[in-house]
Amino acid sequence: MLIDLFSDTVTRPTQAMLQAMLVAQVGDEQRGEDPTTLALEQQVAQTLGQQAATFLPSATMANAIAIQLFCGPGDEVLSAENGHVLNYEAGGAAVHARAAVRSIPTWTGIFGSNAVLARLRQDSPHAPRPRLVVVENTTNAGGGRPWPVEELDSVASAARQHGLSLHLDGSRLFNAAVAMELPPSRIASPFDSVTVCLSKGLGCPVGAVLAHSQARAGQVRRLKQLMGGAMRQSGILAAAGVYALQHHVDRLAEDHRRARQLAEGLLELPQLVVERVPLRTNMVFFEVPDRHSPDQLEQGLAADNVRLSRMHARRFRAVTHLDFDDEQLEHVLRAFRRLMPQI
What we know:
alpha/beta; Aspartate Aminotransferase, domain 2; Aspartate Aminotransferase, domain 1; four-stranded antiparallel sheet; 14 helices
């Protein structure tokens, strides 16, 4: 059986989640009549300290809608240079909002208020107009790092002082909250809009939720319809989200523990350079130095039924998740110990 650490998106619904989906009460979501979808939206809004929320097919759609809420043609979005909206959403800001994205230099995915201020342009007919700051928490390419709340607060304060809106790409927000032992609302409430993904660490088969103000609800609904995101009896899918919020949040600590144990095991191997983070969530990044072959490592792991995500030529990512247990962890570590002296 494949041990898949490619991403936490590979999880499959548990039997209990499938049962919840099977018995879900449903109605026409497009008409606002699906009771389970409405319950999920209300639960997410309350959990995140926001006024309203909208169930969507994907977090990418949620981010695209959020950018359109605050930006239009000629406007500018500020994002970490390795952020998801800049690198993994097919230029959605330019396509949907006709907005530019300006990168903020940071290899961790985390930046401070001074970095935001350094990217602000003077009001000029020659320059785009900065309108929105996007924060990704936890950071993906930055190693699964949760943002320190002090940095979040300073960035939010700087943005407010200069009339910028704030969007939180919180696809793995619950990982950050569990790792930092904070209520999700403490992380999410300073933002004008918040994306949470249901199909990553929470283990749902599909779906995301965009939380926002009540004043924006009509605009979000219109954009959802425009982008083809409106659904009919979506309660079958929303039920998975309701179940996950009740049963799969606290258990994220198990994913974090296994990621720590995986990192500790890989640190024992002199052939690897394992990236250290102050507070690890469910990701382990490492690099294979020039004197060793990343191709041989990848092929050898595949022969032993282990799959990772290859981020760059020599940089790999392993993501722990709901379907990864202690026995599989030991299998992965044995595979590395066997392979590394050979490459």
